[in-house]
DNA sequence: AAGCCGGGGTG
DNA sequence: CACCCAGGCTT
């Protein structure tokens, strides 16, 4: 299929099938940037809940730059990959410092911002500024690897180079590059899906190398995944009035730094994800188990034993403890696991 | 190049 | 269950 015919078919499909997503209703680079940061490794359905609230809370670059980090984390709470939130704020501050508060239009300047890599740079520049910049995300990688029967494992330098070369080559000259990039991603999300792709309704099927070779289900070749680790935790429900005792993770923690969680310790083999014993010792008297909760954090599969507990008499709580008042959850940067356990215990 | 970061939906 | 999602950063 000629590039021209390919573009025509896919753009026609996109015009007829594109979802009406809220961030597709704006041309504001700030809103588009926020959506792209949220969408990193995160499903559209999840972002639908967070994007409007985040924009209401931090309406523009200056507002985000002036915000306290804990407030940005609170708005991000539950989305995961919390470095994205910190980077967003840092990048907003850099834009105020170096670019007069206006989102930069030069690719190199955009790539200099923390949290923005090749994908996000291409997305914001093409969608917000109509620049002829390509992008590769998980969807586009899958579409291309099938369309052109690329055998190399995803993630290798060879396949990366090939994918970006293709993306650059296919980018239309006379049509909106933002629409084209979004058409590719939308097609991957709705038709050329990871499993059970809808080849019967695929407008590119007759020209799909994988389809012609009968290899759709074996492409793309996935990259090897790290082994899963099992973690066993004990989490305490300590009530005072209607409040719950919560504990802040250290600022220098490798993961979820500074976020709030319920008092937690690892029961099984230590992974370093959570502390090994209650701190300080003797503070809690654990009571009965009220239930178990399953959770996962990246490659860790977590089995949580939720226990009621009481504080020792005349306990002196260290400063990293606090009481979470009812209905104050939304204003605090709780971990997703803490939200899950609280919802369960309620 | 490989490992790491959250959390959840889906087949 | 396994897989992977509008990735980026660090080593």
Your description of this structure?
- This protein has helices spanning 3-17, 29-39, 44-57, 61-66, 69-76, 83-99, 107-112, 118-129, 138-147, 157-170, 177-190, 209-212, 336-345, and strands at residues 229-237, 239-240, 243-248, 260-261, 264-266, 284-297, 300-311, 321-324.
- The strands form 2 sheets. The protein has a 4-stranded mixed sheet with strand order 5-1-7-6, with helices on one face. Strands 2, 3, 4 and 8 form a 4-stranded antiparallel sheet that branches.
- Helix content is 41%, strand content 15%.
- By secondary structure, the chain is of the alpha+beta class.
- A hairpin with a 2-residue loop joins strand 2 and strand 3 (243-248).
- The protein has 2 domains: 3-218, Endonuclease III, domain 1 (Orthogonal Bundle), CATH 1.10.340; 229-345, Nucleoside Triphosphate Pyrophosphohydrolase (Alpha-Beta Complex), CATH 3.90.79.10.
- Helix 1 (3-17) crosses helix 11, helix 2 packs across helix 3 and helix 2 (29-39) runs antiparallel to helix 8 (118-129).
- The protein binds a DNA duplex (11 and 11 nucleotides) through helix 2, helix 3, helix 6, helix 8 and helix 9.
Please provide the count of β strands. 8
**What name is given to the CATH topology of the largest domain?**
Endonuclease III, domain 1
Order of helices and strands: HHHHHHHHHHHHEEEEEEEEH
Write down the overall mean pLDDT.
95
Order of strands across the main sheet: 5-1-7-6
Low-confidence region ranges: none
CATH superfamily of the largest domain: Hypothetical protein, domain 2
Strand fraction equals 15-25%
The CATH architecture of the largest domain comes to Orthogonal Bundle
> Helix/strand-derived class?
alpha+beta
Reported for the largest beta sheet, the result is:
4 strands, mixed
Oligomer: single chain
Q: Determine the fraction of residues in helical runs and give it as a percent range.
A: 40-55%
Shape: globular
Number of helices: 13
Top CATH class of the largest domain: Mainly Alpha
How far from one another are the termini?
A: 58 Å
- Please tell me the total number of domains: 2
Q: How large is the radius of gyration?
A: 24 Å
